Amino acid sequence: MNRLVVMKFGGTSVEDPAAIRRTAQIVAGRVAKGSQPVVVVSAMAKVTDLLISAANTAARGDRASALAITERLRIRHKDTATALANGSKAAQPDPMLVATHAWMESDFDSLDEILRGLAAVGELTPRIGDMVVSYGERISSRMIAEAFAHYGLKAAHVDARSCIVTDAQHGKAIPQDALIEQRLRQHVMPHIAEGRVPVMGGFIGATEQGVTTTLGRGGSDFTAALVGGGIDAGAIEIWTDVNGIMTADPRVCPEALRVKTISFEEAAELAYFGAKVLHPATILPAVKKNIPVFVLNSKNPENGGTRITALAAHCRSPFKSIAVKKRLTIMDVVASRMLMSHGYLRAIFEVFDKHKCPVDMVSTSEVSVSLSLDSNEKLPAIAADLSKLADVKYEGRKALVCMVGENIRGQNGIAARVFQAIRHVNLRMISQGASEINMSFMIEEDDAEEAVRCLHAEFFSDPDPEIFDRDPGRPTA
Ligand code: ADP
Ligand code: ASP
Ligand code: MG
């Protein structure tokens, strides 16, 4: 039996000493049952945002404010380490804690050095940005590995940058699977063979030359899947702050239900279309090796969570979940002179390709094409290039609502129910993906949350008990 399990704990699962203690207990519980875990951790909650803001503040020349941010982070991490070592304040300084504080001081000193340099130069390159944000996971993972020792776990810190080899696309680097597999064999497997729990930071990697990179926001999930795929784990567990994948973001829709099982394909669509609970790239390495992925709640570990499996179980409801992606722009490209001519779409997409800009949704007529894009700083340059071919206009503050479920295949009347439920909302673009498991439409960003609640009421008021579950503690009627 394969006892290897990758356990990834997100920012809220390591946000403070109490959360880290819960995490240690969950891992210890797995070890006691005979599993061999590899632990992947995020930076403590909000740390990545604060590091990004420190880097931007320094690059604007405001050195004092940038250093004030890292000073607060230094104190937060040192206090957390103290609380984890002591439980309560010990009379004698613990030598392990002294050592922990010493490397934290030295790491924060180097970080401050980078920020001072940034303030002097006044320019933030993607490469330096990755360097700055990497401290979040570098420090959290080392601190957590050391803290595990206080809870009777034999743990070993592994610098993720020694294993997660990527290309040099800073901010969204592409992992190199074969090299990762080789490095994991070298740096992770020996610890497991010796009965230690390897603990590594998610989200960060390095090029073959050793330059620090990151995998994109939310990328610790991706690390977990890369490690799971690389070591042929028997399971990948994504531990977070909700009971699993829910029928909608519970922050938007408090009535959201837990989805007990969902297919890889459904989960991938949801993640891609904005369900923050999983990073969009997470599923692929797991699919390739058919490794089951579980999404679980570190604040409620008894709950069964969500199991992501190769095939979808039969479900009475057409949809499993509703995702929303915000901060989108619709671009309309109209070229009457292209009527009946070929090559028009190719010419348009060459422009997006040139600017390395992904397109979420496309709808076309004979002479016009509407596209939905992430709102980003490249849009004016893209529009300028496209205007050589056609008339272009674009408008931001749009949201894409995406309803996902294998059971929409071949069911009649679903679109009518969707559009009836949100009849008061102005629809901009509609699409049903070729995979036939999603139905998506663009609306104004301000209408998104209301639309999700209306759709949820329409499709999840009589849930299939085989697939959906209400949170324990919440009334079932
Ligand atoms: P972590 O720090 O553990 O990676 P994230 O904040 O990245 O956690 O993801 C968990 C959050 O995702 C939840 O708190 C929830 O608000 C949000 N979320 C969005 N869509 C969904 C969904 N369909 N199911 C569950 N959570 C969702
Ligand atoms: N800390 C990173 C982020 O906030 C990665 C992660 O948490 O998954 O984006
Ligand atoms: Mg996340």
Structural class: alpha/beta
If helices are DSSP runs of H or I spanning 4 or more residues, what is the number of helices? 14
General shape: globular
Query: Which stretches are low in confidence, meaning pLDDT under 50 for 5 or more residues running?
Result: 473-477
What fraction strand? 15-25%
CATH 2nd-level architecture of the largest domain: 3-Layer(aba) Sandwich
Biggest sheet: strand arrangement: 3-4-2-1-7-10-11-9
Number of structurally distinct domains: 2
Rg calculated over all Cα atoms: 24 Å
Number of strands: 18
Share of residues in helices: 25-40%
Q: Mind sketching the topology for me?
A:
Layout: E1 4-9, H1 17-32, E2 36-41, H2 47-59, H3 63-86, H4 95-121, H5 126-150, E3 155-158, H6 177-187, H7 189-193, E4 197-201, E5 204-206, E6 212-214, H8 220-231, E7 235-240, E8 258-259, E9 261-263, H9 264-272, H10 283-288, E10 293-297, E11 306-309, E12 321-334, H11 344-354, E13 359-364, E14 368-374, H12 379-386, E15 391-404, H13 414-421, E16 429-432, E17 438-444, H14 448-460, E18 468-469
Parallel strand pairs: 1-2, 1-7, 2-4, 3-4, 7-10, 9-11
Antiparallel strand pairs: 5-6, 8-18, 10-11, 12-14, 12-15, 13-14, 15-17, 16-17
The protein binds adenosine-5'-diphosphate, aspartic acid (ASP) and magnesium ion.
Question: Can you give keywords for this protein?
Answer:
single chain, 477 residues, alpha/beta, Carbamate kinase, VC0802-like, 2 domains, six-stranded antiparallel sheet, globular, binds adenosine-5'-diphosphate, binds aspartic acid, binds magnesium ion
